[in-house]
Write a structure and sequence with these properties.
Layout lengths: L4 H20 L4 E2 L9 E6 L6 H16 L4 E6 L1 H10 L3 H10 L6 E6 L2 E4 L13 E11 L8 E10 L2 H16 L2 H7 L3 E2 L10 E2 L1 H20 L3 E2 L5 E3 H7 L13 E2 L1 H9 L4 H23 L18 E4 L4 H9 L10 E10 L15 E11 L4 H18 L5 E7 L11 H16 L5 E5 L8 E7 L5 E10 L2 H4 L4 E2 L5 E2 L2 E6 L4 H12 L12 E5 L5 H13 L4 E3 L6 H10 L4 E5 L1 H6 L1 E6 L3 E7 H13 L10
Parallel strand pairs: 10-14, 16-17, 23-24, 23-25
Antiparallel strand pairs: 1-2, 2-7, 3-4, 4-5, 6-7, 8-9, 11-13, 12-13, 14-15, 15-22, 16-18, 18-19, 19-22, 20-21, 25-26, 26-27
Helix pairs in contact: 1-2, 3-4, 6-15, 8-10, 12-13
The chain binds one RNA strand through strand 6, strand 7, helix 6 and helix 17.
RNA sequence: GCCCAGAUAGCUCAGUUGGCAGAGCACGUCCUUGGUAAGGACGAGGUCGCCGGUUCAAAUCCGGUUCUGGGCUCCA
């Protein structure tokens, strides 16, 4: 295994950190300490809870180790010798397990620097003095081997660079990333709020944010119309039965909100003194009961009922919908379909609710209630390929229009070693081939990732990075052979026989919340004119021009432009500054000369002062910029 | 859910050993009537996240809780 010079440096930094930690805390038990994309970490087991002050001490000790200019020495040993070394150093708690991970026949090596010696494949820098620019960043809990059943260890994160300048540049870049974090911009630009009393992970779209979202929805709705979609509306809840049929309940109940139980049933179980736990059991009993019915109907063991209770103990209720598909399926199934009707494309901005773990919530990008720009396509097998290409084209239009070019495409396939997938493998082969072929039409590189498929079919995901480098799945297109079976969907073919349709799930934005969060960071709050909550700020030089300003405001509003007249009693510079900070695309300065000539002095946020021009001429250009959803053309230096 | 760290005015933050709650920006009124990123004066604004405890006295110490941040786990 070879490392890049930077990885080598960071990996060595983690060894040096371990050296320092053992000097300060000789009882520490080490697990692993690899380099990462942005630095390094080491997982250690230590009863003492590390604090920020400890980090300072460890960092100081690391500096000493670096200054001691210790050589890194490689030593290859037999497995038996390795066990001896580990034991002699009192590090058997985790290191023996790590040793056991090394396959028979592979070389076993240790690296030694000074008094420290660690099981390690390498490679390393030659001397510890190479470590000139490093910084310890944070302490975090991390489960041994990433399994939450295992003990949680203390992980120390740090970073290292070849030079101090590069380290400083990295830290500076991290600071700048914070400035475009959607959580900060969302507050500063008044785009959304999350209120503790409403609930964590639940987004309140304020007027400004709602404009951005509404514009995006209008945009996608226009595209849907062109591509032959029908828009539908469905409620936010559905009976448990529905989700049992779809397979969402109870198999994903840990990531759903607790079911809503009807008043009468609730009163009854309360009068019986039924505990919460019993209630869950009885709700599940409904599921098991229904599962047995479905198994009988489809003749397949699509669901294995783990418990079937007598009808008397059944309890019914409703669930906040975790997905829109069951509702759309019921619309499709509400009437017979001929092959001539297909594809049927049902679209909805459908709000769904999922019980994400509290520690996973994050601004707009990981929430508990969100609106998917969802659609379900019901088509024949022959139509799958063409429909997939249509879906991908839609995602491409969205990304191109918004100037988002920094994304990767992931084709999620079955994990060959897993049996969690439903449906027969011939269908899977076809669906995977269709996804692969469709992805190839995108003209961008994509990766095929086994194990990333949904349980009902393969998918094509668009993954984009946020400013801190975290990746988020946005647009997704998924092929589904499973739900049509569960809901026993059919259409009448040319042969006058019923056939099973194939479903495609797709959401070009993914969710409005996550997409807007990433979009805020993508534009750093500088939205193109068509998305900007306020498109034009009218700035009179003095109150003598207020009447002219009101006149233009009326005309702008009549033209459908979102404009505000700044009536504050401030000097021009202050008003301009305010408009800049609020990231308004256009500021129109109105002085005596402009009022006289019915002109405006245009200041573009992207390009600066653009000089005076007749108001009607400016309005025409602006309307065109908005109508074409143009991206701001940044002035070239 | 787990580990660590936080929560003071709308925002960003200060607040010493426990002893009357602070600043800048934003906001309001007035003065100023201006030419492309901050003119001036005055004013209003806080149950120091919430609940409990210790104390003559708690923003400050202790316990609990809610929420936030960084990770881990998870993401149909």
């Amino acid at each position: 295994m070879s490392m890049t010079p930077l990885e080598e440096l960071r990996h060595s930094a983690s060894h040096i950190m371990a050296t320092a930690i053992l000097r300060l805390f000789p009882e520490a038990k080490l697990d692993i300490g690899p380099p990462t994309d942005t630095g390094f970490y080491y997982d250690i087991d230590l009863d003492h809870k590390l604090t920020a002050e400890d980090l300072v001490k460890i960092e100081a000790e690391m500096k000493k180790v670096a200054d001691e200019n210790q050589p890194f020495l490689r030593k290859e040993v037999s497995r038996e010798e390795a066990v001896e070394i580990i034991k002699s150093r009192g590090q058997e708690r985790y290191k023996l397990g790590r040793l056991a991970d090394i396959p028979e026949g592979e070389k076993i090596s240790f690296y030694q620097n000074g008094e420290f010696m660690d099981l390690c494949a390498g490679t390393h820098v030659r001397y510890s003095s190479k470590l000139k620019a490093f910084k310890l960043l944070s302490i975090a809990g991390a489960y041994h081997r990433g399994d939450e059943k295992n003990k949680q260890l203390q992980r120390i994160y740090g970073t290292a660079f070849p030079t101090k300048d590069e380290l400083a540049a990295y830290l500076e870049q991290q600071e700048q990333a914070k400035a475009r974090d959607h959580r900060k911009l969302g507050r500063d630009l008044k785009l959304f709020v999350i209120d503790e009393d409403v609930g964590q992970g639940l987004i309140l779209w304020t007027p400004n944010g709602s404009i951005v979202r509404q514009e995006l929805q209008n945009f996608i709705s226009g595209e849907l119309h062109k591509q032959g979609y029908s828009q539908v509306f469905t409620p936010h809840i559905g009976k448990l039965e529905l989700y049992k049929t779809s397979g969402h309940f109870p198999y994903y109940k840990e990531s759903q909100f607790t079911p809503v139980v009807e008043n009468v049933s609730l009163a009854q179980i309360l009068s019986e003194g039924c505990s919460c736990a019993e209630m869950v059991v009885r709700l599940e009993a409904v599921s098991a009961h229904l599962a047995s019915q479905i198994n009988a109907r489809t003749g397949k063991e699509t669901i294995t009922p783990d418990r079937v209770k007598p009808d008397a103990q059944l309890l019914d209720g409703f669930m906040l919908k975790p997905m829109n598909c069951p509702h759309h399926i019921k619309i499709f199934a509400s009437q017979p379909h001929s092959y001539r009707d297909l594809p049927v494309r049902l679209a909805e901005f459908g709000t769904v609710y999922r019980w994400e773990q509290s520690g996973e919530l994050n601004g707009m990008t990981r929430v508990r209630g969100f609106t998917q720009d969802d659609a379900h396509l019901f088509c024949t097998e022959e139509q799958v390929a063409a429909e997939l290409i249509g879906c991908l084209a839609l995602v491409k239009i969205v990304l191109t229009t918004l100037g988002m070019s920094d994304y990767r495409v992931r084709v999620g396939l079955r994990d060959p070693d897993s049996n969690k997938y439903t449906g027969d493998s011939a269908n899977w082969d076809k669906a995977e081939a269709a996804c692969r072929a469709a992805a190839q039409t995108l003209g961008v590189p994509f990766t095929e990732e086994p194990g990333e498929a949904a349980f009902y079919g393969p998918k094509i995901d668009f993954v984009i990075k946020d400013v801190i480098g975290r990746e988020w799945q946005l647009g997704t297109v998924q092929v589904d052979y499973n739900l049509p079976v569960r809901f026993d969907l059919s259409y009448i073919g040319a042969d006058n026989q019923p056939h099973r349709p194939v479903m495609i799930h797709r959401a070009p934005f993914g969710s409005m919340e996550r997409f807007c969060g990433v979009l805020i960071e993508h534009f750093a709050g500088d939205f193109p004119a068509w998305l900007a909550p306020e498109q034009v700020r009218l700035v009179p030089i003095s109150e003598k021009q207020l009447d002219y300003g009101r006149d233009l405001l009326t005309q702008l509003k009549a033209a459908g432009v979102r404009a505000i007249l700044d009536e504050h009693n401030d000097k021009l510079g202050a008003k301009i500054r305010r408009a800049e900070l609020e990231k308004i695309p256009y500021t129109l300065v109105l002085g005596g000369k402009e009022a006289e000539a019915r002109s405006v002095s245009v200041r573009s946020r992207a390009r600066g002062d653009e000089g005076v021009q007749p108001f009607v001429q400016y309005l025409e250009k602006l309307r065109s910029e908005i109508a074409t959803r143009a991206l701001p053309e940044v002035k070239r230096a």
